[in-house]
């Protein structure tokens, strides 16, 4: 019991320093998926927010682009502030398996991301129930990853509209930022 209380206390302290990106660790090891989700759930309930779970890996350039957008742009920070963000590490090379969160691959599959590639993300409510994920529905469902194409941005915007408290003007700013970012990426920048 003391260990659980200490973990919750330490996780709560770590969250503000990482712009609500939750990845608590204990005793020099990577947190399990269950531990990270429990810490996020505590924060989500306290702050009345949904949880954005991002699946990522150290080698994944698109994952880093998504993190950069959420943490380095005004619009991305506005979006990130709507959620408690949990980054779970999956699909690492053998020499970096220690970076993975135990149970992350199974949780990705549970959320509908089996064989989807990364970044894959899903929004959960405060009770850890899935609301929506980054698999775009339709004739050919596919993971939008970091949204660059118009159809990917459209699905990401639907995710935000359905799960955040952003108003119409804020949603427009986020969409414009993603479209501007997409132009830079397509131009090689």
- Here the CATH topology equals Glutaredoxin
Radius of gyration of CA atoms, rounded to a whole number? 16 Å
Q: What percentage of residues falls in helices of 4 or more residues? A: 40-55%
- In the CATH hierarchy, the architecture is 3-Layer(aba) Sandwich
The tally of beta strands, per DSSP, is: 9
CATH class: Alpha Beta
> How far apart are the first and last residues' alpha carbons, in Å?
50 Å
What is the averaged pLDDT score? 89
Could you explain how this protein is built, in words?
The chain is an alpha/beta fold and 189 residues long. It has a single domain (2-12, 19-186), classed as Glutaredoxin. The chain is built from seven helices and nine strands. It has helices at residues 2-17, 33-47, 61-72, 74-80, 104-110, 150-163, 168-186, and strands spanning 21-22, 25-26, 29-30, 50-56, 83-89, 120-124, 130-133, 135-136, 142-143. It has a five-stranded mixed beta sheet, sandwiched between helices. Strands 2-3 form a two-stranded antiparallel ribbon. Strands 8-9 form a two-stranded antiparallel sheet. Helix 4 crosses helix 7 (168-186). The radius of gyration is 16 Å and the shape is globular. The relative contact order is 0.14.
């Amino acid at each position: 019991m003391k260990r659980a209380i200490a973990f919750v206390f330490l996780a709560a302290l770590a969250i503000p320093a990482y712009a609500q990106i939750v990845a608590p660790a204990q005793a020099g090891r990577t947190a399990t998926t269950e531990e990270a989700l429990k810490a996020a759930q505590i924060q989500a309930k306290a702050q009345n927010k949904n949880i954005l779970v991002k699946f990522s890996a150290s080698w994944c350039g698109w994952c880093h682009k998504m993190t950069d957008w959420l943490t380095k742009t005004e619009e991305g920070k506005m979006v990130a502030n709507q959620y408690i963000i949990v980054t779970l590490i999956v699909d690492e090379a053998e020499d970096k398996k220690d970076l993975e969160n135990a149970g992350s691959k199974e949780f990705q599959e549970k959320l509908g991301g089996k064989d989807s590639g990364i970044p894959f993300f899903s929004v959960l409510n405060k009770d850890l129930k899935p609301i929506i994920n980054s698999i775009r529905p339709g004739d050919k469902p596919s993971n939008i990853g970091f949204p660059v194409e118009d159809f990917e941005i459209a699905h990401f915007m639907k995710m935000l509209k359905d799960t955040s408290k952003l108003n119409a003007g804020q949603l427009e700013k986020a969409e414009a930022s993603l479209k501007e970012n997409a132009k830079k990426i397509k131009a090689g920048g």
